Automatic annotation (TrEMBL):
Keywords: Amino-acid biosynthesis, Cytoplasm, Diaminopimelate biosynthesis, Lysine biosynthesis, NAD, NADP, Oxidoreductase. The active site is at H135, K139. Homotetramer. Its EC number is 1.17.1.8. It comes from Hufsiella arboris. The gene is dapB. NADP(+) binds at R35. GO terms for molecular function: 4-hydroxy-tetrahydrodipicolinate reductase; NAD binding; NADP binding; oxidoreductase activity, acting on CH or CH2 groups, NAD or NADP as acceptor. It comes from the Bacteria. Residues 106-241 form the Dihydrodipicolinate reductase C-terminal domain. Catalyzes the conversion of 4-hydroxy-tetrahydrodipicolinate (HTPA) to tetrahydrodipicolinate. This is 4-hydroxy-tetrahydrodipicolinate reductase.
Length: 249
């Protein structure tokens, strides 16, 4: 496939390596310093665009791909407040988009098991629950998109939690109400991404943790998503690609 990379930072560069290794061609690279080259003429040279840019630029990038009719994979986080509008416009315009807060196989297994665990823990009110995420200090958004997906999986399945709230350690201090799920965000040099779900009772704790050792899992997942999206129209999340089911177990 011919691929347009939108965002050529830490992720864009690794995605390029995996895409080329898998026989694809990079026909456009857009970063902050040449963002005026992101236009419909240039995008039409690509079969798919892969966006790992910034929370502030993602929406404009998505709509430029919609205008060009170029399917887009969105890895950028921090724009999910606009998800419903983007979904409606994608479906109404018969466009093609797949997004994920995290493309790695390990985290997508984690997302699935997190929901199963939450359903079980729903029965045990003696346990409180919280989510912790740790990322590098250059990360622009908090909480991480991955932590939001994890928190949504808990809130959907644990009746005593109705919403999540975020504390950025060292910046904001939150006193949670019993029905609020705390997401604690830590920023530590060079950490690619660590997520932990902790259920605590007076007698014991259960900790469920995913640790990314590097960014390769995210990057390969994004290229596999681009291959999966090829030929499809519609609005997808990475869940549609992995399609785990409890009957698989
Ligand atoms: N979904 C996932 O699996 C996953 C994994 C890792 C990172 N991410 C997300 O991807 C995004 C990028 O992460 P990163 O680590 O590569 O960040 P990065 O800062 O290394 O790279 C982002 C790049 O976007 C460029 N940029 C800025 N404005 C732009 C514009 N208007 N158009 C195009 N590019 C522009 C910047 O110059 C920079 O090079 C972040 O939102 C991050 O949270 C998602
Ligand atoms: O490095 C980042 O930034 C990451 N962003 C994603 C998120 O917000 O969950 C995925 C993990 C790495």
């Amino acid at each position: 496939m011919n691929i347009a990379l939108i965002g050529y930072g830490k992720m864009g560069r690794i995605i390029e390596q995996f895409a080329v290794d898998r026989g694809h061609h990079i026909v456009l690279k857009i970063d902050a310093d040449n963002r005026d080259e992101l236009n419909t003429d240039n995008l039409r040279k690509a079969d798919v665009a892969i966006d790992f840019s910034t929370p502030d630029s993602a929406i404009n990038n998505i709509y430029t791909c919609f205008d060009a009719g170029t399917p887009i994979i969105v890895g950028t986080t921090g724009w999910y407040g606009q998800l419903q509008r983007v979904k409606d416009d994608c479906l109404n315009g018969k466009k093609s988009l797949l997004y994920a807060s995290n493309f790695s196989v390990g985290v997508n297994v984690f997302f699935f098991v997190n929901k199963v665990l939450a359903k079980i823990m729903d029965r045990y009110p003696q346990y409180d629950v919280q989510v912790e995420e740790i990322h590098h200090t250059k990360k622009l958004d908090s909480p991480s998109g991955t932590a939001m997906t994890i928190a949504e999986g808990i809130v959907e399945n644990v009746e005593r939690k109705n919403e999540w709230v975020n504390e950025v350690v060292g910046q904001t201090e939150i006193i949670t109400k019993p029905d609020q799920l705390l997401i604690e965000s830590h920023r530590i040099e060079e950490v690619p991404g660590t997520h932990t779900v902790i259920y605590s009772s007076e007698v014991d704790d259960i900790e469920f943790k995913h640790t990314a050792h590097n960014r390769a899992g995210f990057a390969l997942g994004a290229v596999l998503a681009a291959e999966w999206l090829n030929g499809k129209t519609g609005f997808y999340s990475v869940k549609d690609m992995f399609d785990f089911n409890i009957s698989d177990i």
